[in-house]
UniProtKB/TrEMBL annotation:
Pfam families named among the record's database cross-references: Glyco_hydro_1
An annotated GO cellular component: cytosol
Protein name in UniProt: Amygdalase
Catalytic residues of the enzyme: 364 (nucleophile)
Lineage top rank: taxon: Bacteria
NCBIfam families: PRK09589.1 (NF007154), PRK09593.1 (NF007158), PRK09852.1 (NF007356)
Keywords recorded for this protein, A-Z: Glycosidase, Hydrolase
Source species: Paenibacillus stellifer
GO biological process, one term: carbohydrate catabolic process
Stretches the record annotates as Disordered: 28-48
Family: Belongs to the glycosyl hydrolase 1 family.
MF GO annotations: beta-glucosidase activity
């Protein structure tokens, strides 16, 4: 059987405002949680932004977006996923009126996309809660954030109702379990945060997400609004039933978020978890009705799979496994210890499709590597990143297999289509892009852009609607 991608498949790339825009205080922008996180997710935030934070300049996309969008168009992008920096629109997060200069920037950015026939796919909140909301309200622990988020969402839905069709409410919403400050703007240190407060914060996010779906559909019924979760197939380490049950329990931690978004209610296994852990979620009047406003599609990131075991002697966390789990002895790992499992992508696509029967969108997938810029005989500078091409090809073949399985896949956007600052480590040496940016972790570099070998490869993939993958 010939593998193929459907007509109209949305090929493109993905970024986040806080990792590439820079201009962290220009045109009225307020500080975000990212501005005080100079070393990634594993170190405490600073009091104020410090010069060693690579994200303050990023790759200067704020001033160079026209140049970069032109390069994306050269590759043939059908869609470009980016986020709106909440603190550009509402600098503190709790104002009554938005910042016009911030709104205008995204007007200009989306216009530039449409100039080349590229559809924006916009994440409303991508790890960049206004810092004031974290410091003053303890982030999403506080119910007031639901109202602040609704005002923000309504503002951008109204402003861009004719420019943006595809929306995501929260980026990798389930990552709040491990990274409450980055993901949920929660100022209380993780080790002091109670399960009660954590899951109440999650409830507030879920209500806000559903409210955004309701608001968005009222403003423009043609909007397609999705959730976005960090997906990670979880395999039992052995066939021992204890390991299988352990894998199931671990998987519930992640599927819970998509279940509520796609089904509109809390699943029974989470109600049991709450009972057994003394957690009582406070529902405001109307919350149950709000949650019934389910998403139009389910989107997710995919980088790795993990294993789980009930055997304490084997519970050795993998080096790169951000959300726990133990290494799979059958898989190789990236330079950062992330286990590479292309077939896991087919597996998770089938699992989500069987579970939700809603269109799926792979909005992050890619390989972070320490790329080396070289000069060819003709004087052209590039990166010979055959390893990235192999990684992406192996994953895309598995997407085609899932489509052949009957899964409805809307599109695929590679993560970090242009080099940007890593979210997990705040490094620039961990590069994902098809486009090399001459900036380094010591702050040096010209910020010039260079096409990598993978740039030309992806251009051909898009140009043939994926057929070049099978030649």
């Amino acid at each position: 059987m010939k593998l193929q991608f459907p007509e109209g498949f949305l090929w493109g790339g993905a970024v986040a405002a806080n990792q590439l825009e820079g201009a962290y205080q220009e045109d009225g922008k307020g500080w975000s949680t990212q501005d005080v996180s100079p070393h990634g997710v594993k170190t405490p935030p600073t009091d104020v932004p410090t010069e060693d934070n690579m994200k303050l300049i990023g790759i200067d996309f704020y001033h160079r977006y026209k140049e970069d969008i032109k390069l994306f168009a050269e590759m043939g992008f059908k869609v470009f996923r980016t986020s709106i920096a909440w603190s550009r629109i509402f600098p503190k997060g709790d104002e009554l009126e938005p910042n016009e200069k911030g709104l205008q920037f995204y007007d200009d950015l989306f216009d530039e996309c449409h100039k080349y026939g590229i559809e924006p796919l916009v994440t409303i909140s991508h790890y960049e809660t206004p810092l004031h909301l974290a410091r003053e309200y303890d982030g999403w622990v506080n119910r007031k954030l639901v109202g602040f988020y609704e005002r923000y969402a309504e503002t951008i839905f109204t402003r861009y109702k004719h420019k943006v069709k595809y929306w995501l409410t929260f980026n990798e919403i389930n990552s709040i379990l491990e990274f409450p400050f980055m993901s949920g703007g929660i100022g209380t240190p993780k080790e002091k945060l109670s399960k009660q407060d954590l899951y109440q914060a999650i409830h507030h996010e879920l209500v806000a997400s559903a409210a955004a779906v309701r608001i968005g559909h009222e403003i423009n019924p043609d909007f397609k609004i999705g959730c976005m979760v960090l997906s990670m197939p979880i395999y039992p380490l052995t066939p021992n039933p204890d390991d299988v049950i352990q894998a199931m329990k671990s998987d519930h931690n992640n599927t819970f978020f998509a279940d509520v978004h796609a089904r509109g209610y809390y699943p029974g296994y989470m109600k049991r978890f709450f009972r057994e852990n003394g957690i009582e979620i406070h529902f405001e009047p109307g919350d149950e009705e709000i949650l019934k406003h389910t998403v139009d599609f389910v989107s997710f990131s995919y980088y790795m799979s993990i294993c789980e075991t009930a055997d304490p002697a084997k519970q050795i966390k993998g080096e790169g496994n951000l959300l726990g789990g133990v290494p799979n002895p059958y898989l190789k790992s990236s330079d950062w210890g992330w286990q590479i499992d292309p077939q896991g992508l087919r597996y998770i696509l089938n699992a989500f499709w069987d579970r939700y029967q809603k269109p799926l969108f792979i909005v992050e997938n890619g390989l972070g590597a320490a790329d080396q810029l070289v000069t060819l005989e003709n004087g052209e500078k590039t990166v010979e990143d055959g390893y990235r091409i192999n990684y992406l090809k192996e994953h895309l073949v598995q997407v085609a297999e899932a489509i052949a399985d009957g899964v409805d896949v809307m599109g695929y956007t590679t993560w970090g289509c242009i080099d940007l600052v890593s979210a997990s480590t705040a490094e620039l040496k961990k590069r994902y892009g098809f486009i090399y940016v001459d900036r380094h972790d010591d702050g040096s570099g010209t910020l010039e852009r260079y096409r990598k070998k993978s740039f030309h490869w992806y251009k051909e993939v898009i140009g043939t609607n994926g057929q070049s993958l099978f030649e």
